Predict the structure.
Amino acid sequence: MSATVETLVGLERRISLNLNPAEMEVEVGKRLQKLSRNVKLDGFRPGKAPMKVVAQRYGGEVRGEVLGDTLQKQFVAAVQENKLDVAGYPHFEPAGEGAFTATFEVYPEVVVGDIGQVKVTRPVVEVADADVERTLDVLRKQRISYASVDRAAEAGDRVHIDYAGKIGGEAFQGGEAKDFPLILGEGRTLPDFEGALTGMKTGETKSFEVTFPADYFAKELAGQTATFEATMKSVHAPHLPEVDEDFAKSLGIHEGGPAKLREEIGANLDREAKRRIQVRLKEQVMDGLLAVTPFDVPKGLVGMEIRSLMEHAVNDLKARGMKEQDIKLGEQVFEPQAQRRVALSLLLNSFAGANKITAEDDKVRAKVDEFAQSYEDPTEVVAWYYQDANRLRDVRAMVVEDNVVEMVLQQAQVTDEPTSLETLMGKA
């Protein structure tokens, strides 16, 4: 066997392999001989079929196996001889009598650029009492109750109505309902529709017009004016629970009452703020490292990542109730994400290796504890992670990434930016 290596474009390489047909035929004969000892063919007892018959029946299949095994063996030997770090799988093609080529890609040499050029904006957030009270208001609204009232409907009330609509004197699809529930001001229906209901009392019937917007989702109704007749069936006013001992207990705080509840909310908001800050820092650091470290990314690895992302997306959509034949996803949708993921994986491996960055056991445990804090029984969650090597491996990878981010931040251009919690959470 002899092999020559040719450099193509970028990371592509091609190896020429010259196989020995005589040696391959000897191997084919050995395998057919072994097969003939147990093979079952019509008209012959097991193991008694003539070699000529066995060769006619299985010769092509065995010859293909021998060719594949020989190519793979010779390819591996050539790769080792030339000290090549292969990325993905080779593509074999015939190139004449006993000759083949194997085209493949190699891993790039990743040398991280000047970290001092990486620019990062770090949000600085302090959880304030107002943030805690806002969260309390959200929790109260999630547990809102309604009581029947004998007055005109107001914004925030829950009402039940019967209604029927017509356009040009004709009923239209979706224009009629009985005992329809609606919270006024919530925006589930058109503002003009809700506005007409505001001020109505139980038992009252009212006619009014509503014009559908030009961009209404039901195109047959877009821009049309409908006449509705609505009857108010009931009006219920909202009641927010008081922040007291019972409310605290309903949220799992059995001792300490509202004060302890506020303390827990503050701690949870602080943890969430730190998590989001870390996510933002990591994204900026990764973008910065990629920007200062240009290198070619193996197309084969990107293709494998695309297929993995597509498979995950399809399975997710199927779990949501979509039929597989209705799922139309093109590879181009996933290519940017796949390209970035592969590039970051190569870059992080190189950076961590060059700087001897590892996942220390105490930091792994701290990360697991951090995940567990948001659960009712943290000890069960910790045990769950440590029972499975794969789960723990994922945590170790996160810790390595955190350590990379920490090292880069020590050398990067970091600007602290005072930020409100609402802005950090994307609510302002």
